[in-house]
Amino acid sequence: MFLTAAAACAQPFKGQSIAIADDGKGIGFDDLRYSPSLHRVLVPAGRTGTLVLIDPSTHQRTAVTKLSREAAYGGGHGEGTTSVDEGEGALYAIDRTSKEVVIIDPAARRVTARAKLGGSPDYVRYVAPTRELWVTEPDSDRIEIFNISPKRDALASVAAIAVPGGPESLVIDAAGGRAYTHLWTGTTVAIDLRSRAIAAKWPNACEGSRGIAYDERSHFLFAGCAEGKAVVMDAAHGGKVLATASSGAGVDIIDYDPMRRHLYVPGGRSATMTIFSVATTGTLTPLATTPTARGAHCVTTDGKDAYVCDPDGGRILIVRDSFPAAKPK
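^ thats the sequence. predicted structure below, dont judge the formating
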């Protein structure tokens, strides 16, 4: 059933959830990811000192430990590991407390390499064409770049890209040779992966630029706006804005399912998530708005369901998506 954001906000979440915090306290979640090659939902679990891997078929958890741990939860997401990515069968995570980026062997469930960061980290992304890690450091207005050793047992900081006024969020278009990030207000930035030069800056129709996602097939670039809006841009045609649509307020991290062309936009302030279908023209059509939880600002999808963070509850909410693939318009 489709609900307005206001109506959904008034209702508690009634679906299935997966507890991540074993002590019943909250967790400062931020970045969530899904790894198709590992068939796992990746949950950097902040202050708990763990990176949790969830099997979407059984919802069983396994955990990688030896990351920074803090007992107290004070809100926000400034402690421990809060961002992760996967590449070549390895996991790469940042640790905000120790200001490190690490390589993790998911089979052995252990950290195999660590490197100090030049600034406070936000997101980490694996860049396949150059075999690098890019780590956003918004307090320093830059992206720091690390080379990965052939055996994935060492990392070396090799460069930094200045992004004044950002960077917020990061997505890699490996096939197109570009990375995309936002400035905090109203602008999206395209960066060439090999030259590391800023290739373009586009207005994105956001008052507050936050979440980002990309579809390699259509070249659609999605922006989530903090004020409660989703934006579709055409990266193949100068970042032209194709569509906008309203969602719940407090948007931060978004995700996209390219097979069904569904866009997931949670609002942390509204305590809702809206699922949009994305037409081949870029038009956004809301399919449903579901209640989540206060502060539930991050999401990922396995192509079947959406997994939404509940920071105060220290858990992951499972939002079922039974809607069919978007139809061309």
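The helical segments are 5-9.
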